Amino acid sequence: MNDELPAEFLLDGFPTAIRETGRILRSLIFATVPDAVETVRTGWRWIAYSLPEAGRVRNFAWIGPERRHIHLGFEHGTLLDDPEHLLHGAEERLRKFRYFTFEPAIDIDEAILVDYIERAARIAVMPSAVRRSLAETAVEPVSDALDDVPPDWELLDNRELRSNRRSGETGNGEPS
């Protein structure tokens, strides 16, 4: 890690299109999280973004340029809700990271990227015990699993279940 090197030091070694996309991503990160601290990680060949919090460094994002494409990645990406499966990394079984890949131009709406960056920054400053707990209980999204629910089953939300428990019902409208 080298806090002294500017991000241009890393980006300047890549083709023009990758360099430009990297500069756009940097601007987007700083516009979204103005307090972000940028650090060039020469060993990883990426630019890391963190939030200093209570004397600790809380990494939340990184930009990883390569010759043919560039990544915008998230340190705790597995904790980010990704219902449209826009992020990569699950297919590689990465335990923590998730990332976007641009070849080389950004092909995702800026508002979507801002949303992911904001959420990644919020997750980064959570207490580590909370992040660990979320990671331990996290499962892959099952948004299309509801298609397999038998038609005669009624889905109840948690508020309704809690209300039923307090009133002594079993969840099917009958007393327990």
Task: Describe what you observe in this structure.
The chain has 176 residues and is of the alpha+beta class. The protein folds into 2 domains: 134 residues, Aspartate Aminotransferase, domain 1, CATH 3.90.1150; 35 residues, no CATH class. It is 32% helix and 19% strand. It is built from 5 helices and 5 strands; from the N terminus they run ααβββββααα. A 5-stranded antiparallel sheet has the order 1-2-3-4-5. β2 and β3 form a beta hairpin. About 4% of the residues have low confidence.
The count of helical stretches stands at 5
Helical fraction equals 25-40%
Compressed to H and E, one letter per element, the order equals HHEEEEEHHH
**Radius of gyration over C-alpha positions, nearest whole angstrom:** 21 Å
Proportion of strand residues: 15-25%
Q: Low-confidence parts lasting 5 or more residues at pLDDT below 50?
A: 140-146
Biggest sheet: strand arrangement: 1-2-3-4-5
Indicate the CATH class of the largest domain. Alpha Beta
In CATH, the architecture of the largest domain is Alpha-Beta Complex
Shape annotation: globular
Counting helices, strands and paired strands, the structural category is alpha+beta
Distance between the termini: 61 Å
CATH topology of the largest domain: Aspartate Aminotransferase, domain 1
**Domains (count):** 2
The total beta strand count reads 5
Q: Biggest sheet, in brief? A: 5 strands, antiparallel
Overall pLDDT, averaged?
80
